[in-house]
Specification:
single chain, mainly alpha, 19 helices, 8 strands
Length: about 500
């Protein structure tokens, strides 16, 4: 998909930005294209949809903060003030002026505005494949709205057209329940028109939509509905666990049989620079998460900036024989002990561990700036995640529709390579298994919040830190009509 995205995304940024709210789309200067006359051919609609997909690349920030905010990792970096916005979130002292949070707010609404651009002109033209295109568009809008609700709770909801300055100054924050209701309806409407398989990697499928719907239900404690939606994915037969956990996150094993929805990244196109993170085509977070190597041949890994440092407790949650530990955590001291020519610089809050799932690889064919332009795809929804969500939903539903033990057994059997390490499918065990299976993948903080397990997050204040603050400048740009989240 990225071959086409990189040819068209720049044009779509220009076209879509013409009449969009400046604070949501501060990306590139406007061009001369007349956006009102854009949707005249099927290719125009496809190009616009690629513009909606393109915003997925910015979610690297959402994902790395989902770990840094949790009890899984420390911010790290080269010093205690390196990327101060992230440091503040790690310490739970972030404020409404946090720049990282504003970036998430802006970028998710940029994606929504682009999706609404298609909705606004969806009746201009009839063509073969239009229903699937509109369904993919609704999936993406739902994905972006879900990210906003996870981070901020009640958020303004726009559904009919591009987001204008006037609209942002006349609409209130929508209750999270109403936002959830809208994205539930959108996904339900989209599913019949989506295929189970796509010709291009990374495009929305029926399985991705069912899985996202199940996750959205789970976040609202709608356990029966979650179980039903996730059961559709499981019973489809379209997915299976990769046999060797150690291979899931390798660059040559992307879009594998376990991939339900995967954000595609490219390190071979014109990439981001420290002066233009909005220009990203590669996965910025990966470069930030590598060790700070200084000398020697440290293949297979490449150098990074020492962010998102796993804590000792993450290593300790894995039992002996669990193959996931070696694929989740890089023990840098053990690595350099066997490589006398390799040296590295300890970063801030050094624990000796690095996130191996999203580490920069030396054989990654990337262009400058290679420090931040990495090609590792983000595995947004894995089949293992679906199985564990289904186990949890069935355990918590009044009347389970499937056996949660079967789902937990599949995860444990793959982890240990045998059937002798199975444990009872209790809620406590399933939630603990989620932490082991998904460590380093950006889900931990939100899992802790939704299940009430936040007591182990350093600095967490109940009644406040369950949500992040609405960016102060966005409240001001909206005419100060939006109330701030509690505690901020």
């Amino acid at each position: 998909m990225y071959n086409k995205i990189t040819k068209i995304a720049l044009a779509m940024l220009i076209i879509i930005g013409i009449q969009s709210c400046d604070d949501y789309l501060e990306i590139l200067p406007p061009g001369q294209e007349n956006s009102e006359n854009f949707f005249n051919t099927p290719d125009n609609y496809q190009d616009a949809l690629i513009g909606v997909y393109d915003i997925l690349s910015t979610t690297y920030l959402n994902n790395i903060l989902g770990e840094i905010a949790s009890d899984n990792s420390l911010c790290g970096g080269e010093s205690p003030t390196d990327v101060l916005d992230w440091q503040q979130i790690d310490d739970m002292i972030h404020t409404p002026d946090n720049g990282a949070l504003r970036s998430i707010f802006q970028q998710m609404y940029a994606g929504i505005s682009r999706a609404n651009y298609i909705v606004e002109f969806q009746d201009n033209l009839e063509f073969d494949g239009k229903e699937q295109l509109l369904a993919e568009n609704l999936f993406l809008r739902s994905y972006y709205y879900f990210e906003l609700v996870k981070f901020f709770g009640d958020v303004p909801m726009y559904t009919d057209g591009r987001i204008s300055i006037e609209a942002s100054q006349s609409i209130d924050r929508t209750p999270a329940a109403d936002v959830y209701a809208q994205i539930e309806m959108d996904l339900i409407n989209a599913i019949p028109s989506l295929p189970w398989q796509q010709l291009q990697n990374g495009r929305a499928t029926k399985g991705a939509a069912w899985a996202l719907l199940g996750k959205i239900y789970l976040y609202q404690d709608k356990f029966t509905e979650a179980a039903q939606a996730l059961n559709e994915v499981i019973n489809s037969g379209q997915y299976q666990l990769v046999q060797d956990f150690n291979t899931i996150f390798l660059n040559n094993n992307e879009n594998n049989s376990e991939s339900v929805f995967e954000v595609q990244y490219s390190g071979t196109q014109e990439g981001a620079s420290f002066g233009c993170f909005q220009c990203v085509e590669g996965n910025v977070a990966v470069g930030f998460m590598g060790p700070r190597f200084q000398g020697g041949n440290f293949t297979p890994y490449a150098s990074g900036f020492s962010f998102n440092i796993p804590v000792q407790a993450v290593s300790d949650i894995f039992q002996a024989g669990d193959t996931r530990l070696a694929a989740t955590v890089l023990d840098i001291n053990a690595f350099v002990a066997s490589r006398p020519d390799v040296t590295f610089t300890e970063g801030s809050e050094h624990t000796g561990y690095f996130n191996l799932k999203y580490i920069p690889y030396a054989n990654d064919n990337v262009i400058q700036d290679a420090n931040i332009n990495r090609s590792n795809n983000y595995r947004a929804i894995r089949y293992a995640d679906v199985l564990l969500m289904a186990a949890e939903a069935n355990l918590r539903a009044p009347a389970p529709i499937a056996n949660p033990q079967t789902f937990l057994d599949a995860i444990r059997d793959r982890a240990f390579g045998d059937t002798s390490n199975r444990i009872p499918a209790t809620l406590e065990n399933v939630l603990a298994e989620r932490r082991r299976e998904l460590a380093g993948e950006g889900h931990r903080f939100f899992d802790q919040v939704r299940t009430g397990q936040t007591s182990t997050i350093p600095g967490f204040t109940p009644g406040k830190n369950e949500l992040f603050p609405i960016p102060r400048i966005e409240i001001e740009l909206a005419g100060n009509r939006w109330e701030q989240n509690a505690g901020y």
